[in-house]
Write a structure and sequence with these properties.
- Strand 1 and strand 2 form a beta hairpin.
- This protein is an all-alpha fold.
- Helix 3 crosses helix 7.
- It is 75% helix and 1% strand.
- The chain has a single domain, classed as Farnesyl Diphosphate Synthase (Orthogonal Bundle), CATH 1.10.600.10.
- It contains 17 helices and 2 strands.
- The N terminus is likely disordered.
């Protein structure tokens, strides 16, 4: 199992830790079922960044990092991967990390069951290695993520979603995992309470910026590096920040009317992308990502000085300018 080497090249300690995490995931998810075995092998070999486990382990370094942190980092990546499998089924996305999505290879029914299998393994690890309080936190997180997924599906093709509702959605679907990674890593390592709180806030802001950039890349990314087709959010009727910003600046109302159609042709999708870019929707969205990144950097600047602080600062800045 390989993670994306380029992202962690400058962080050799974390890169070494993540090799342990990958081995734990491989051991934990081992199955004699050929569909489960092949489905998970292909997915975890897709060169993911292992970003959330990496953040958990860096946060643990602000206290006393223990063997259980590797288990918890594996748990978090399994949870994240399970949600991706389920998301791809719901969105009917053909690719994940440049490879055919699980449901495209094995069908939607098996894909859902593979995702459920991952979740069961995740919660078994969590029950064994995390505190009761953080286990409850994880359960609440799952409930929140499911609720946001339901809300997102209900708001497809609704061009007047609104900024506040969008920010609440990405907090519940994406930023909450970054928050959990930093909080649990520090809390389980018995870091100082103030340090744990700052790490939790830094994780939240990094996560918000990360998802906004992710949404921007669907409009302005390079398909060769992004490893998925552009315009997938548009095709699925998902309202993200570039569109929200563009609609608010569209004086003719043409963009709103076009996006409010119950389905799109390829030409409709291309026109929506062009109008969003022409209305500076991508630029406005990027300014929001910068705000969240700067908030994260302020929290990070107040952390105890050392390798962990420097790593988090570099990661926050790098995620703002990523192209994948």
């Amino acid at each position: 199992m390989n993670h994306e080497p380029s992202f962690w090249t400058d962080f050799p300690e974390t890169a070494g830790d993540l090799k342990k995490v990958s081995a734990i995931i491989e051991e934990t998810c081992a199955s004699q079922n050929p569909v489960v075995k092949e489905g998970l092998s292909g997915l975890f070999d897709g060169n993911g960044k292992l970003l959330r486990p990496g953040l958990l382990l860096i946060a643990a370094g602000f206290g006393r990092k223990q063997e259980k942190h590797y288990k918890l980092a594996a748990c978090l990546e399994m949870l994240h991967t399970a949600t991706l499998i389920h998301d791809d089924v719901i969105d009917d996305s053909p690719l994940r990390r440049g490879l055919p999505a699980v449901h495209a290879r094995f069908g939607k029914q098996d894909a859902v069951l593979i995702g459920d299998y991952l979740l069961s393994k995740c919660f078994l690890l969590a029950a064994e290695y995390t505190s009761p309080q953080n286990a409850v936190y994880l359960a609440r997180l799952m409930s929140r993520m499911c609720a946001m997924e339901i809300e997102q599906h209900a708001s497809r093709f609704v061009s007047d979603l609104g900024l506040r509702r969008y920010l609440r959605k990405i907090m519940g679907k994406s930023a909450i995992l970054f928050t959990l990674a930093c909080h649990v890593g520090a809390d389980e390592a018995k870091a100082a309470r103030q340090t744990t709180e700052r790490l939790r806030r830094a994780g939240y802001n990094i996560g918000m910026a990360f998802q906004i950039i992710d949404d921007i890349l669907d409009y302005a990314g390079d398909p060769s590096t992004l490893r998925k087709p552009l315009g997938n959010d548009i095709k699925e009727g998902l309202v993200t920040l570039p569109l929200i910003a563009a609609v608010s600046r569209d004086e003719t109302g043409g963009l709103k009317a076009l996006f409010s159609k119950p389905s799109f042709t390829v030409e409709d999708g291309n026109e929506i992308m062009s109008l969003v870019k022409a209305s500076k929707g991508v630029d406005v969205a990027y300014s929001f990502a910068e705000v969240y990144t700067n908030r994260a950097l302020r929290e990070i600047s107040l952390l105890p000085k050392g390798q962990g602080q420097r790593a988090l600062e570099k990661i926050a800045k790098r995620l703002l300018i990523r192209d994948t």
